Amino acid sequence: MSRLKKLYMGEINNWKEVGGADQPIVAVTREVGSGTRGAFEDIMGLTRKINDVTVTAISPRAQVASGNGAIKTLVANNPYAIGFISLGSVDDSLAAVSIEGAAATKDNIKSGSYGIARPFVLLVNNQPAPEAQQFLDFIMGTDGQAIVAEEGYIEVN
């Protein structure tokens, strides 16, 4: 993961530095304030302190895209681009990168062997409205989890 971190910090700028073609790397990131970007920065150690304020360490040369769809489009249309999106958004137009020998698969994410993953947490107050509880029961139940799996995301059960 250290080479990926250096790539996003702008310390590695050409694919030839990591065994690829002599072409500039186009690092694509999410917009500031994106939860996905925040998680990626935390997991990869892509933050630093300046005057006791935590700021991004992602290179200002990185292209910024708003949402999984925009990153997917940029990366799919540029063979020298790299970005990060949800596993469920990966299709045949992209190749998911292995991290330290672990492929980006549901099983590897569930086991923790794929190093770039984050959980999603649903929050409700201690006494959710009946409609909210019905929704939670549905998404955590068999039918809801089948939809999650069908869409390519990782089911809980």
Overview of this structure, please?
This protein has 157 residues and is an alpha/beta fold. 34% of the residues lie in helices and 11% in strands. It contains six helices and five strands; from the N terminus they run H-E-H-E-E-E-H-E-H-H-H. It has helices at 2-9, 35-44, 68-76, 106-111, 130-140, 142-150, and strands at residues 26-30, 47-50, 53-56, 63-65, 81-82. The strands form two sheets. It has a three-stranded parallel β-sheet with strand order 4-1-5, with helices on one face. Strands 2-3 form a two-stranded antiparallel ribbon. A hairpin with a 2-residue loop joins strand 2 (47-50) and strand 3. Helix 5 packs across helix 6.
- Low-pLDDT parts are none
H-E order: HEHEEEHEHHH
What strand order characterises the main sheet? 4-1-5
Structural class: alpha/beta
Number of strands: 5
Instruction: Determine the number of helices (DSSP H or I, runs of at least 4 residues).
Output: 6
How would you state the average pLDDT, rounded? 93
Percent helix, as a range, is 25-40%
Biggest pleated-sheet summary = 3 strands, parallel
What general outline do the C-alpha atoms trace?
A: globular
Strand fraction: 5-15%
What distance lies between the first and last C-alpha atoms, to the nearest angstrom?
29 Å
**Rounded radius of gyration (Å):** 18 Å
Question: Would you kindly provide a brief summary of this structure?
Answer:
It contains six helices and five strands. The chain has 157 residues and is of the alpha/beta class.
Task: Jot down its keywords.
157 residues; alpha/beta; three-stranded parallel sheet; two-stranded antiparallel ribbon; 6 helices; 5 strands; 34% helix; 11% strand; globular
